Amino acid sequence: MIKLIKNIRVFRDGAWKPSELLIADKRIAAVDDRLDCRLPGLEILDGRGMRAIPGYIDQHVHITGGGGEGGFSNQVPPLRFSAPVKAGVTTLVGLLGTDGTTRSVESLVAKTKAFREQGLTCFCLTGAYEYPSPTVTGSVRRDIVLIEECIGVKIAICDHRSATIAREELTRLASDAHQAGILSGKPGIVHLHTGSGRDQLNILFDVLEHSEVPISTFRPTHLAGKIDQAIRFANMGGFIDITCDPDNMEKRCAIIRRALEECPAGSVTLSTDGNGSMPVWNEKKEMIGIGAGKISALHDTVRGLVRCENLPLEEAILPVTVNPAKALGLAGKKGVLAPGADADILLLDEDLNIDTTIALGRVLLREGRMQVFCSFEDC
What we know:
10 helices
């Protein structure tokens, strides 16, 4: 499978340059001003002057659906294959949320495998909000070491729905994940849902002060409402993740811009909470409304950073390409358009709409229309 994408612009050597890009099987073989290719079976794609950027990485997606707050009828359905494709997400990390009872880690692993079979790069996290963490093998460490797709564990802190985990318990969980990562050559991360409780990230700072667990093990998310502590954490050497909010785009983009300016380069990532429930609580912790996260918010936020914060496109995409690739141990393989990297490519038109999505060298979306159709997509 050899493809040549012609008539595109790629950000190279500090500028958007007219370029051609050669794909060999699942990887990028070459990027240059002009490529002289005369190979049998060569497929040529005309980019019509569009800008080519790396496929997005979303590291917080409820691929089996989330929710359940307010009753069984409020469970969010599983993510359909077309949703990440249309959103330009070619690499995603699936996880569980509030409900680790009727939603299982086994089903999560199965859905992760399904997305891989369909052509996306997909990983997952064991665990959920509760502690001890639900697992497949009976052990967080074994799940990470023995399940190919599993790269870490999910837990919730600072939330009235969480297990109110103690410092010693969080330290033990993080130690298990870290050791499992060492044994398996995986990130071995503890992905932390952080709620709106008064303690914010205090338990995290407490663990770091009283243990030898590396700060890189911890990946707190949902940090827009606690940005001061998030910036402190990043400046200590950690990664911070901010959840996209398409309903408050200007305000959220301003927060992201501040984080990018005040945190070390490469330490800020974005994710969507796609297909996760978005309950609204009053001061009595009573649910007064509910919605669901949209994976399309990742690209909407990239455009928001360009339009609301006047960030150049090449800078606006860093928290959804280069930075999460680094955070997930995928630097050089994901998040860049360079020889040897996976051929995950988006083509954007002049209005920054996603025209084409290519994942691992396979064209999944072209001219805004799906090119690959999966079973039960329309059910």
